[in-house]
Design brief:
The chain is mainly alpha-helical. Helices cover 42% and strands 10% of the residues. The chain has twelve helices and seven strands. It is elongated, with a radius of gyration of 23 Å.
Length: 231
């Protein structure tokens, strides 16, 4: 029985091109929007697609988010090192924030990893504001974020409760070799943490930064604002 509708994986297989190349061609407009449904193309539409053009738009394989982070770090002159357990200067977390910004396209369907067009990564690496972008999107754990704001961890937890700072991603951290000792740690962008005081001038930040250990947080009495009701 002949197939009459194709999803992206089936269409890529029909064209004999990688799914990532198909997704890139879709992103650039080389492949039109699905015509059979919101995510499927008709057989007639697939038969009109130019497989050579799709492949030419992405002549080399996609690279992982980690590899993209390494290239960005190299472009900044601060290469990521894997010796002596040194932390990376640019991480895959930053790459995912670049995806959120629309600077990079994620060509993977895997929520635990990402794939990117090498050429687009190179374009990002040539940006004059690259260092500023990386600095803004550098991840901070809760303890680091609290230290950056010069407040106690308990106060920072209230900032999270109030919705004043939000985590776009968390990572699993293991204690020991057992998975039973693993916990999810929320990460925050440096820019979002830095923006909190200016966005909430109603808080006496100098006073908050002098609250002694063990004392109740001045933020404890505040309640999150209700989300607006859609019109």
């Amino acid at each position: 029985m002949r197939r009459t509708e194709y999803d992206e994986g089936q269409a890529a297989k029909r064209l004999k091109v990688p799914v990532a190349a198909f997704r890139w061609a879709r992103h650039t407009g080389l492949i039109p929007a699905p015509d059979a449904s919101s995510c499927q193309w008709s057989r007639a539409a697939v038969e009109t697609l130019d497989a050579d053009a799709v492949q030419a738009a992405m002549p080399s394989p996609p690279i992982s988010g980690g590899a993209a982070a390494d290239r960005i770090a190299d472009a900044l002159g601060t290469p990521n090192r894997t010796i002596n357990g040194e932390p990376a200067n640019v991480t895959a977390f930053v790459v995912r924030r670049f995806v959120d910004r629309g600077l990079l396209v994620d060509l993977s369907a895997n929520p635990d990893g990402s794939l990117h067009h090498p050429g687009q990564v190179e374009e990002v690496c040539r940006r004059k504001d690259l260092a500023d972008l990386v600095a803004a999107d550098t991840p901070l754990g809760p303890e680091q974020a609290a230290a950056r704001l010069r407040v106690r961890r308990a106060d920072f937890d209230h900032l999270v409760r109030l919705g004043w700072v939000r985590s776009p991603q968390s990572i699993e951290v293991r204690f020991g070799t057992s998975r039973a000792g693993a916990v999810n740690v929320a990460l925050y962008t440096t820019a979002s943490v830095d923006a909190v005081p200016a966005e909430h001038p109603e808080v006496d930040w100098e006073q908050l930064r002098t609250v002694e250990k063990g004392r109740r947080s001045p933020l404890a009495a505040l309640r999150p604002k209700s989300a607006p009701v859609p019109a």
